[in-house]
Amino acid sequence: MNYKQLPKIDLHCHLDGSVRPETIIELAEQQNIDLPSKDVNVIRDMMIAPETCPNLIEYLKRFDLPLSVMQTKEALERIAFEVYEDAALENVTYMEVRFGPLLHREKGLNVEEIIGAVVAGMQRAEKVHGIKGNIILSLLRHMPTDEINDVIDVGSQYVGKGVAAFDLAGGEELGFCEKFIPFAQYAKEKGLNVTIHAGEQGEGQNVYDAITMLGAERVGHGIHIATHQAAFDLVHDKQVALETCPSSNVQTKAVDSMDVHPIEDFRQRGIPVTINTDNRTVSNTTMTKEVQKVMEQFNLSEEDYMHIYRNSVNAAFTDETTKSKLLASE
Q1: Is 108 annotated for ligand binding?
Q2: Where are the domains of the chain?
Q3: 197 - beta bridge partners?
Q4: What is the pTM of this model?
Q5: 221 annotated ligand-binding residue
Q6: Is 85 marked active-site?
Q7: What is the Cα–Cα distance from 15 to 38, expressed in whole angstroms?
Q8: Which of 84, 114, 217, 254 has the fewest beta carbons closer than 10 A?
Q9: Does domain 3-328 have CATH number 2.60.40.420?
Q10: Is 278 assigned to a binding site?
């Protein structure tokens, strides 16, 4: 089977985890930033997480290097363009890229400039490559909450023009949702969809809370509903799509190995699962690799895969016209 030719949708991809190593070297040179090496292979090794990390925290360390060069409008626009370009070249027809605007202010950029640059890069890729996209604004759970509404205010100006949703990301502690209720509510009032990272690190209760407290319409990862019946039933009854990221889940020890990943069990039991990259560089992956990995591991037919593709279309934070075109490309 030609996995590259299959139409693909990526709903869970982090901008700072998907930067080309070559681009890091070029931007560091332009910005007079010292790198440990100018050898692309060394930089690539520094950016790619081990096949199995001890934990999520170790995995997240791989973001320090790309963030160091992602502090100018030009760098953000270029990296956003390249992430969408790389996806388009492997027949990803629609993609939602998420990033944390508050992580890009070290050189004085404001949130308006940061979001505007990323949207501009995406829109340039749409024109050049025909891919469709949207941006998701990720707020990090460990950071102070006093600027969250400022990010939402700026992002809301781009609703329907490149920004689609509000997200919470970063290390996951049990019970994190309650603190963020007013912010998720404000995001919805401002026209943003809501997707929340939850149930990645063993806490199925967080998925239940994300849906009931924060109004999550999708859940990032969500795989630990497998051990939490109430969360599983809620996801099933409300048909909340799970943004599963198979390679990443193995790397961060969210699951022990690919053969015990719950994606196919969920699919067979009526949970709307989707396949995504999470971080193209940090996880050393592409949508083609992720689709092939899932199909071969669980012996899926092309028809089985198209069922997952349709889940992604239905769950996408985009307009009905775009969804119709995505379904037509099956």
Answers
A1: no
A2: 3-328
A3: 220
A4: 0.96
A5: no
A6: no
A7: 22
A8: 217
A9: no
A10: yes
